[in-house]
Design goal:
This protein is mostly helical. Helix content is 88%, strand content 0%. The protein has five helices and no strands. Helix 2 (19-33) crosses helix 5 (67-91). The protein is elongated. The protein starts with a helix and ends with a helix.
């Protein structure tokens, strides 16, 4: 019987080769480092602390409609679905 730790490491390597996961990881880096999105996140937090809730809501709407955010969230959902399917298989 294979060592469970080694099997888990092998599974992780296989998961990381999936095109959806590779694209997600690449997009995640772009998402986290995008200056425009970083500025919006900072401004959202600032508006929250200032109690400007309507302006915050408007900026969140703009943020959530940004193409990078839309693509990132879509890929995140795809990867989550893949991981849940793997989890279900492992738990059977």
């Amino acid at each position: 019987m294979a060592n469970p730790i080694d099997s888990a490491k092998e599974l992780r390597k296989e998961i990381e080769t999936l095109p959806e996961v590779q694209e997600y990881l690449s997009l995640k880096t772009l998402f986290e480092n995008d200056k425009e999105l970083q500025e919006m996140r900072t401004n959202i937090a600032k508006l929250e602390s200032e109690g400007k809730l309507e302006e915050k809501k408007n900026l969140i709407d703009v943020y959530n409609s940004h193409p990078l955010v839309v693509n990132f969230n879509s890929l995140k959902d795809e990867v989550k679905s893949i991981l849940l399917e793997i989890n279900d298989i492992l738990n059977d």
